[in-house]
Structures are given as C-alpha cells and as structure tokens.
Amino acid sequence: MAAPEDDMFSLCVDPTKVSSCVEVRFIDKIKGKGLFAKKAIKKGDTIFIERPLVSAQFLWNSLYKYKACEFCLRALETAEDNARRLSGIPDLSLPHPELCKVHPELHQACPQCQVMYCSNECRQAAADQYHRALCLGSSQEDPNHPISKLKDAWRSMHYPPETSSIMLMARMVATVKQAQDKGHWQKLFSQFSSRAANEEEEIAHKLLGEKFQGQLNLLRTLFTTALYDDHLNRWFTPEGFRSLFSLVGTNGQGIGTSSLSQWVHACDALALTSQQREQLDSFIDQLYKDVEKETGDFLNCEGSGLFLLQSACNHSCIPNAAASFPSNNFLLHLSALSDISPGEEIGISYLDCCQRDRSRHSRHKILRDNYLFICSCPKCVSQMDELDLTSDEEEEEEEEEEGGGRGG
What ranges does the record give for the region Disordered, renumbered to this chain (predicted)? Predict the structure, then answer.
C-alpha cells in the first residue's frame, strides 16, 4: 500500500501546493512506490522543498572540524574562516565579505553539552524533537560514555568517504523516546522502503566491509547500552537492528552545506565590469586550486537525512529531477531538469554524470553493487535489445579506470 498522502507531504514547506502538483503511487512489488506529476512541470521549476524527519552530520566530518548546526546542518564557519581552513592560508581575505550569509552572533550552544546551533530556533527544535534524550551534558568529552563509545566504534568501522552515520539511527530512537505520540513517529519511519533479510545483510556488508557481521553485533550491543527503550524493543533485536541499519543505508539522502560555496554563488550574481569579473573569477579559481592542494575533495559539511517525499523518487539513468541544498541547510529542493508531463514519473539519478554516460552493463553493476537493484528505467529498457559490439571492451576499460572494480 502507498503511504497516506498527509504523511508523505507533512514535512514539505507548502504541503497543500505540493500535493496539488505531485502524487505518490504504488507501482509494483519490485519498485514499490513512485512519485508522479499531477500537472505539467516546467524545466527549472522547484517541485517541492522538504525538511528531513531526522538528519545528522557524519562523524568523521565533524571530527575534522567541519562545523555545522547540530539540527539543520547549516555551515557555522564564515566563508572567510572556511576558506582559510580549507586552503591552509591563515591570513586569507575574501573580497565582498558582506556576501557571506553566516551570522555567528546568532549561534547558540546547548547549555548542558555545548554542541552548537545556528540559531535559538534550531537549538529549541532539536531539544523538542530528540536532543534531550541524547544530550551528554558534562560527559560530552568523556570517552567512556555509552554514546561516545558508540560513535568511536562507528568511526573505526566506517572511514571517509562517509555515506551514513549511526547517529541518524540514534536520533530516530531519541525522537520516538521524546514523542508524546510515539506511534505517529514509528508510523512515519515505517514509510521508508524495507528490504528482505538477505538484502539487509548485503547493505550491512556494503557499509561495514568484510567483517560486517561481527561489527554489526558490536554496534547493536553498544546501541542497546546507550539508547534502549521498551517502546522500541524490536529495534534492538538482531533482526530489528539489522532492518534499522538497512533502512538508513537504503534511504539516507546525502546533505552537503558550505558557506564558501554559498559565497561563491553570491559572487556569481554580482553586477560587475568585465575587468572586475575577470579579477574576481581569477581569485576564486586560485582559491579552489589552493583548497584542492590542501584539502582535496572534502569541501563541505556533510551528513545525511531521511526525507519522506523524496524517498518516493525512484532512480532513472535519464533523470528529470535532481535534489540540491541551496539554502545551505538540510532543506532539500527537488527541481525539474526537463519539462515533466502530467502522469509522468519523477525520477532522480543515484549516479553522477560520468557514471550515467557509461554502458548499460557498467551502470547496472554500480547500481547493483551499491544500491542492490537492477535499473529498468526507459534508457536501460531501450538499450536492452540493442547490439553493443564494444560493450565487453568498455566494461574492461571502465573496471581498469576504477582500479579493478569497487570494493565492499
């Protein structure tokens, strides 16, 4: 059965408007639900803006001093401070500092544990939803606290580049713990796609590596010690914990925020003379070269979240929509990449642009290895019967480029 419409749209910025534009339908037992247009959507239109049920910054990302709001993941460093840290140039000055949208004077700390928020509104929202159940108070730096042990265990098992966080699961538990209507939240979490037992094991293997079974048991023990609640006892059983782990691994949507990136976009919109534009572009180009040399590809505050409506979007190798985070926080904007007709399914891509240009076999291998499904989008179906005389050579070349293929 498809999820009730009022649940699926409940976290959108304008639920009434969104529900008049799109609908969730059950497709079949293999694809599950999908998102479909109810009326014409034009290329470039924002289809919806949605906040997550829960979100969390990645633990290594936080440890490496990428400062983000504990609730909405907004970057807390000013663009200049961010640029100085990423480039390794401590006296760097950015032109047009007024374009930075970070306001340190509004930042607030939890009075008990001192974790930081971008505003009093976020601090209060976190406290109301889950933080009271997770706040470590004066034990924030105590390595022997059960939650600290859980975090350390996760970091030791899941190195960068990160794709998930045990704290997303912890916030799910804490949210239900604090809720007056516990059944309502459990119902919302149950809307996300579930997997068969063998698929859940594959997801755990993908996230944790070859020693996943022992690591999963250790995580469950630490998770239970830190967070056990009678109302959620099934989440702490071996089967229930594996399902919870699979839910987060399958449905978690990556979130990236950056005060520097936001500043660069603001610079792009400035009305400048050609000479001023050339100078500013040259400065920005050199800055990114310095950042790449010092920091590599890890530019953003990164985390993941569970988005109800976005989770209804299936993968397509020719996507007509894409998710982004232009507000520099956890608000997901789903935008149309092409005109979408009434009744047409809205699809996003789990692959990047380069991966989408590869052969059908290669795309299927990436999707199977990382997302545990075989794509049946129009592009893949149309290519299925085509004779590709170079496919074998392409596959060998692609695997050589990847260094012999992807690991677990």
Answer: 388-408
